[in-house]
Amino acid sequence: MIKLVKVATKDAGQVKAHEFLKKLIDPKTLLLLSGGTTPDYQKIIVKPGDIIPGALAIVDERYGSPFHENSNELLLKKAGIKNWADEYCIETHKLLKGKKPTQTAADYEREITDLFKRFKKRVGVMGIGGNIHTAGIFPYSEAGKSADLVVSEVIEDKYPQRVTLTLKALGKCSAFVIMMFGKDKKEALELLLDKDQNDMQKYPAIFYRKSKIPAYLITDIKL
User: Fold this and answer.
1) DSSP code of 144?
2) Distance of alpha carbon 177 from its chain centroid, rounded?
């Protein structure tokens, strides 16, 4: 269930994302963060300092050693998320721990299962790619159809080895704050909103439109 939230600029979108998260999150909430360059976590979370979830976990990761140079976890660390979580004593869950991909996925599955049991409110900060993937859920990937909450797989991408929450896991969330900016994603946004397009295997992010879970899609794209 998507609600389109129009903003003038990407910076204005970060402010709007903060406003939504402030309303959605409390100490009984599990906050799920995605990587990528779209969310500016300094502006959304770190500098305001008024969003305090009960626990924090990452949505997906480019597999490798802990905090490798292309990892989402390093990106979040550089954005100040680690220091922010430490300052406010927020429970955090890393994905990369130096184990093989399948074991990494299995271990994270156990952690996510436990977190979902303990936190009934689960809010995700999400992005959508030009091919309408979301998290590490790419077109025709195992993550789009798996019965597990977490999978490890190799996909066709610049960073092929991934560990990610699945569509099944996203289906257990309470709300999403989604961000899409830039003219280069106009076609993707049009496809996402097209009610004649309903194949979530081909276009995984269609999940947000088809689901009954509230999803606030913040964008500066003019349709």
Assistant:
1) G
2) 9
Q: With b meaning 16 or more CB within 10 Å and e meaning fewer, what string describes 188-218? A: bbebbeeeeeeebeebbbbbbbebebbbbbb
Q: Of 109, 27, 39, whose CA–CA distance to 76 is shortest?
A: 39
What is the per-residue pLDDT across 131-154, written as a single tens digit (0 to 9) for each? 999 999 999 999 999 999 999 999
Distance CA 75, CA 57 (A): 14
Cα gap 50→45, rounded to integer Å: 7
Q: For residue 113, give Cα distances in angstroms to 40, 57, 105, 148.
A: 28, 12, 12, 10
Grouping H, G, I as helix, E, B as strand and the rest as coil, residue 147 is coil
Residues 6+ apart with CB under 8 A from 130: 184, 185, 187, 188
71: three-class secondary structure by DSSP: coil
Dihedral angle at the C-alpha atoms of 56, 185, 150, 60, nearest 10 degrees?
-40
Question: Residue 162 to residues 101, 125, 137, 141: CA-CA distances in angstroms?
Answer: 8, 18, 9, 11
pTM greater than 0.85 = yes
Are 67 and 75 in contact by the 8 Å Cβ rule? The answer is no
At the second CATH level, the architecture of 2-219 is: 3-Layer(aba) Sandwich (3.40)
